[in-house]
Amino acid sequence: MVRLVLADDEPLLRRGLKVLLETDDRIEVVAEASDGAALLDVVARVHPDVVLVDVQMPVVDGLEALRRLRDLPDPPVVAVLTTFDLDDYVATALDLGAQGFLLKDAEPDALIRAVLDLAAGGAVLDPRITARLLPRLRGSGLRENHQVAGLTGRERQVLALLADGQPNAAIALNLGLTEATVKSYVSALLTKLGVDNRVQAALVAQRANGVSW
């Protein structure tokens, strides 16, 4: 069971997401929050596995809440709920350690799958956000090419699956490895790429071009 907290200042949206996500019996919405301050209190109380947080909220906004959640001793996995007109916030959320970016109008099945993947250790990027974000971050792609080229063949395989949003268990199954071995590869490639988390690694992979995988 994935224990989930929803943070958004729109009650109807929270209620709709709760009903939608709980159609899957592997997901339980254990608490809701209408602002960032309430979210911090709720997380400290219920210790969820995954948090979905809006960016624009009163009292404490989503980005500040994300910053504070990152500093907890055992932080939950956090994904940002956003809309197309809030692209400017995505890069900041990425730097603050968000493990996923989801659009509020995503298909129900995609949202459910995203929550399950996040809980399993995956990184989740709505393709529409990626398509809009990459041109602003791409540059020439030369730096990313150099970074990816410096990985071993197996690390590139792991990175390609990671960039596709696969959690460690799925990567292990795909490559015939143990989860512990995959975790070691992920840790190594994060260090080599100079990034802090899986989402940042996925963006490096997607910005790279001209590299043989």
UniProtKB/TrEMBL annotation:
Taxonomic superkingdom: Bacteria
Keyword DNA-binding part of the UniProt annotation: yes
Keyword terms of this UniProt record: DNA-binding, Phosphoprotein, Transcription, Transcription regulation
SMART domains, sorted: HTH_LUXR (SM00421), REC (SM00448)
GO BP of this protein: phosphorelay signal transduction system; regulation of DNA-templated transcription
Response regulatory domain mapped to chain residues: 3-119
InterPro entries the UniProt entry points to: CheY-like_superfamily (IPR011006), NreC/VraR/RcsB-like_REC (IPR058245), Sig_transdc_resp-reg_C-effctor (IPR016032), Sig_transdc_resp-reg_receiver (IPR001789), Tscrpt_reg_LuxR_C (IPR000792), WalR-like (IPR039420)
Domain (HTH luxR-type): residue spans on this chain: 144-209
4-aspartylphosphate: residues carrying this PTM: D54
Pfam families, A to Z: GerE, Response_reg
Xref: CDD domains: LuxR_C_like, REC_NarL-like
An MF annotation (GO) of this entry: DNA binding
Protein name per Swiss-Prot or TrEMBL: Response regulator transcription factor
